[in-house]
Amino acid sequence: MANADCIVLQGGNMAEAHPVGFQWVAEAKARGAKVIHVDPRFTRTSAVADKHIAIRVGSDVALLGALINHVLTHDLWFRDYVLAYTNAARLVSADFRDTEDLGGLFSGFDPETGTYDNTTWAYDEGSDDTLQDPRTVFQILKRHYARYTPELVQQVCGISEADFIYLADAVTGNSGRERTTCWAYATGWTQHTFGAQFIRTAAVLQLLLGNVGRPGSGIMALRGHASIQGSTDIPTLFNLFPGYLPMPVAGRHDTLDAYLAAVGNTQQKGFWANADTYFVSLMKAYFGDAATAENDWYFDRLPRLTGPHSTYETAMAMIDDQVEGYFVLGQNPAVGSANGKLQREAMRHLKWLVVRDLSLIESATWWQDSPEVLSGEVRTEDIETEVFFLPAATHVEKAGSFTQTQRLLQWRHQAVQPPGECQSELDFFLELGQRIRSLVADSGDERDRPLLDMTWDYPDDETGNPDPQAVLREINGYRTGEHGQRELVSGFGELKADGSTSSGCWIYAGVFAGDENKAARRVPGGGAGVSQSQWGWAWPADRRILYNRASADPDGKPWSDRKKYIWWDEEQQRWVGDDVPDFPVDRAPHSRPDPALGGPAALGGDDPFIMQSDGKGWLFAPSGLVDGPLPTHFEPQESPVRNLLYPQQQSPARVIYPREDNLDAPSAGEQGADVFPFVFTTYRLTEHHTAGGMSRWLPYLSELQPEMFCEVSPQLAAERGLVNEGWATIVSPRAVIEAKVLVTERMTPLTIDGRTVHQIGLPYHWGVGNEALVTGDAANDLIGVTLDPNVLIQESKVGSCDIVAGRRPRGAAAEALLASYNERAGVTVQTDNQRITDPPAELHDPAPGDDRDQEGWTRW
Amino acid sequence: MGRLSTLQWPVVRQLRTGDRTGRGVAATSPTTRDLQPRTTTADRVVQSVCPYCAVGCGQQVYVKDEKVVQIEGDPDSPISRGRLCPKGSASEQLVNAPGRQYEVLYRKPRGTQWERLDRDSAIEMIAQRFVQSRRNRWQERDDEGRILRRTMGIASLGGATLDNEENYLIKKLFTAAGAIQIENQARI
């Protein structure tokens, strides 16, 4: 980011949520870079940016789509980059229909299941380098965003045309051969029913501007937890194995061949064609000698998925008494997950619960002091759940690695021993596994074979704790040496599918190359090189900028001296530069290998996107996203604004849960929409961390931010009689909470489609309980569970509510207030949960005679 | 405390020492002059990484008598260059928090209070429940006869605050047990 010429911070508040990382934005600005903050609120990020642009929460695709349209219409795209490195010229199936044709649907939508069959999104044979064929990706893109205009942005986002032009000029003026623009986002983009598409819109724009794989370019995910990146790479997630290999799905991956073909068939270009080497090596790491060629490397014994077994789906299964036991590890779902009441009810249905944390968080004590116990709705004496609380070790009481937001692994050394009965997860799970194994050792039950077959033998280190470096070595992986001895592999390129190698996470292979823990490298400042590579280790292969082949032109020369990074050295016949080349190092720029070779060998010299099956950056995504090949603007699940672009109101493929304990406020145009007239959004403060488990027990931090509050504009305060430092009650169809009032001009009422939309800001760090130094009502109780279908994340950044002055009622009166609101609004489980908003306008293919080029053409 | 002589009057001290703002040497006393920062008296300094957000700021952990006495930013880190935010700066209190729990606690069904339980017993009890619930909710095949080989009886949530090595063991153990409902903050 420090190398960017323009930085757009959107969907986040970097100065407050990532304060120390923000110094690099400040560095860029000090060098003359332009910094623009696009956010519903004016925050400390806005205060030090060149410009703050207030946006209606959830409307980012409309803004970014309009930037794409602006770039295409005014011919501001980076022609050489786009032609060589993206799929702009590819032809798409003649059967493809755009949202422009079908009122907000793409072809292939099944209204019954709410899912797409993406057959018609596929490439056709051939391409058109003139980009004129109407079936090229480029022309489809142009048509898709043609109506995303500055006027539309004004109506949908509440952003003036002047502000839009300011943003467009800043971004396009700082892109091209000589300059680069960088985008950075956080959960303001992800926590939506089509959040993955927010990020995709930025990806399309950045590809058009040539801002991927180059210094100061890209789209930065500002992640919120010390190893949230690591816990995605080496996942504690239901759908993934380490290294982004999918968990097998029944019916889709019933054999090893079917599984491997789905992950990456050996005919396609790029590194996913080697998926067999990654998978077999993982099974060798997990199951050692028990994984053999004869048993398909243990594939048949792996558990299978049958649906989206996400944390929300699982909470609902708990309510249905389908789940008996639950481990909660350094997380606080009673406060931190959407629809807190549903979360707490789920835990009341468990037979047993294990909470491992530093202090008695609300997820450990809800049976004593949850809002439902305090209100008398449930009685402690009636709750059957058995609860174990086990104290955890802090980050300084154990050694191990975190992977931070830029894929960098950093090792922590242990400073002291864990006190009392505190222990690390490593220690706890190693011991739990040993005890489970001895309990089933003599069972003779086939189901227990994997538990007994898995490798589970880890030595202690010199402190007497399980040695985390032994685990990191297993993750790195081994090969069988000349004399049968185990040797650490030096990278994923050495992995084989014949059982001679192992690796617990192929993208981490190399972190322990040469028996050196590279995550522990600590040369001050990272050493003299531009990429500071002597500090920690970045996956994959210690590459600091991904897809960095794109930092050079198709001939292999830097696009400009100013943005020089990786280039082709004719004399050495290899890629050289300031980083590890993210490309086959000896593949010449103009080489055209036979595509039939498959895998990395088939990558052309101008195929920088080495994980894509065609080596190109995808402006149009023929596969990979379940809710559409091109990002499209929809309204949130509940919104007081109608979709001004399409008859379809919400993202049609969103995951909905029509349940009595998960009701939604009527959207614009529906009866009762005026009962919940305001939009709320949630966010972090600098002084607290997520659901407060690591901050509300600390005296300094609790003193700095002692109380739950809401931010409202002076206009809304006047309208609702809210007084600064007084109390407000906030009501959504799920809950009623109270907060102290902060009246501030940082909140701007926006004019949307001719009417005023007020937005309310809510930090989400507090929870109800007796143990923390500071407590308060939880913003997450207000939020419903509706998910993005790609990643199953909840839409917690936007919802509808009412706000009134004064404290909330207590006890049964709170439930009565909620019920009266929902009755007035006519809320039912069907509210907002119709798949198709306007079936006549959406479910019919346009007649061939329709002239789409006609001025003002529209089918609805 | 006795009366100050005129020479000790704060304003005179300021003038005498040239401490114009009164926030430097003029504000010291024999007691404050004898104070030493905890960072200079520590037995050792250990390199670590901040446990809060994902920026990954370097930390220096100061240890005296096997206790953490201070945590400072690591000036060597190319990511943070010695800086820490309010949370990172307060992380010594995370280690030594007044409300931190050091003992295993147990709440029995319908219980109204926590009870003490030693750690070995607790882990053994958890292991027994794990094995039992795993069997209770085992699914060998689906309705169409396809292999499932899984249990729906056990779920887990957490990992974004844990180490890579820890997440690795958790996923491995649960996968071998056939438990699939394993999730963390990355989904949230």
TrEMBL record, chain B:
Coiled coil regions, renumbered to chain: none
SMART domains: Molybdop_Fe4S4 (SM00926)
GO biological process: anaerobic respiration
Pfam family, one: Molybdop_Fe4S4
Record flagged with keyword Cell wall biogenesis/degradation: no
Metal-binding as UniProt keyword: yes
UniProt-annotated location(s): Cell envelope
Family annotation (InterPro entries): Mopterin_OxRdtase_4Fe-4S_dom
GO MF annotations, alphabetized: 4 iron, 4 sulfur cluster binding; electron transfer activity; molybdenum ion binding; oxidoreductase activity
Protein name, as recorded: Dehydrogenase
Native species: Flexivirga caeni
